[in-house]
Amino acid sequence: MQMLVMVLDDPALLTGVLKAWSEAGIPGATVTESWGIRRICDLAGCEEVSTFLGFTKVTRPEEVNHFT
Fold first, then answer.
1. Distances 3 to 10, 28, 42, 43, 50 between C-alpha atoms, Å
2. CA–CA separation, 24 vs 3, rounded Å?
3. Domain span at residue 55?
4. Residue 19 falls within a domain, yes or no?
5. Is residue 23 part of a domain?
6. Rounded to 5 degrees, what angle do the CA atoms 65, 66, 68 make?
7. For the chain, how many structural domains are there in total?
8. Is residue 13 part of a domain?
9. Contact 18, 26 (CB under 8 A)
């Protein structure tokens, strides 16, 4: 058994993705709606979390980080 995790930012693409996977022979999929902490705080205005997310810039400034 294998597990693939995909974060799809545009829900309008979901049907096409599932159709393509089915055509590729993938027998099933579980779809779960989720919200990342960055999006939640962008909507709610959480300054504390923004500070926390910026912590890696201080500890590892040479790395490029992505938040999903």
1. 21, 11, 30, 31, 31
2. 15
3. 34-68
4. no
5. no
6. 150
7. 1
8. no
9. no
> Is position 45 within any domain?
yes
| Amino acid 66: pLDDT | 47
Structure tokens at 42: 């962008």
Quote the pLDDT of residue 36: 79
- The pLDDT of residue 34 is 81
Place of tokens 């597990």: 3
Q: Consecutive sets of 10 residues in the chain, 68 residues long: mean pLDDT of each?
A: 86 93 92 81 69 54 49
Task: Tell me which residue of 22, 20, 28 sits closest to 2, measured CA to CA.
Answer: 28
Amino acid letter, residue 27:
P
